Structure of lytic cellulose monooxygenase (C4-dehydrogenating):
Amino acid sequence: MKYSTAAIVAALVPSAYGHYFWNRLIVNGVETGDNEFVRKTTRPTAYNPIKWKNVRDNSTPDLDDIRCNQGAFSSAASTKTKEVAPGDNVGFKLAVGATMQHPGPALAYLSKAPSTASTYRGDGEWVKIWETGVCDTSKDFTKDAWCTWDKDRVSFDLPKDLPNGEYLLRIEHIGLHGAHDGQSEFYPSCAQIKVVGGTDGGSLGSGIKLPGGYKQTDPSFNFSLWNGYKPYPMPGGPMYAGVQGGEGSGNDTAPAPTAAPTVSAPATTAAPTTLQTATQEPGNTAPTSTPAPPPSAQVPGTGAPAPAPAPAPVPNCPNAPRRKSKRSRKAKKAKKAQLN
């Protein structure tokens, strides 16, 4: 049987159409095997997107397919479950060398299994733990302004306070190039993970149901890229409170700053409030003079105001010559005349 060159290229390189699918889980920088921990779709053309309009393979976001892709639950029992720890860096890689050649956000969700991940259909709540959107507003909003543009993978940190248990970890890229016409494209996949080394009990908080959490009328999926940059409304409900930033996180998902530890310095090490003018010689480890504190400064260690500096004393000059008054000289001269 003969195949045309075009057909072979189309089969092997789905990125020629801009379409793709996820098949590898990454944990702390180490890639796992193809569909070793990621559920495999049964779609005839694995890289086809899920859409509301111009539907492919009868998959729409209103069906269970939106969770982990079409037919993914059928491979759950044969898919391994990867042990991870809270705070681990995890990620997903696209299959067959594809890259994300569509503009749009990427998002990650967790859904806790009641028992094991391999028997879980994903019909519980999905909690968003990561998202990334635009990285550089000065670039082309229809292409490389987006953090995921031309990337073959994404990575992010699991929440550090993630409770122990088995989960479905869902990754999704949304292509927005046709969103102005109601043709957003969804590319989801799910990995099976087991969290160990965390806390027992607790919940992830509120999330969304899939299907149900995405509506065809949502502004996120009817968004035009073609009139210049504008803020993109991220879908998927609230972010999990314990989320940590990761690679590719752009301006839409800047991680909260980490507070520096508070250190109480001894009172005697406080910097002087007056300017020190003494110079330090090379090799010396201390200044040659210590500035006096201003009148409002406090005496170190006491909390009491420092006494105001005493005024400079008037110089005492006992040997300075004194000029006698004119009246005194006349009186002495008259007394001398009487004696004579």
Remarks:
- The two ends are 160 Å apart (CA to CA).
- Confidence is low (pLDDT under 50) at residues 1-16, 243-326.
- DSSP finds three helices and ten strands in the chain.
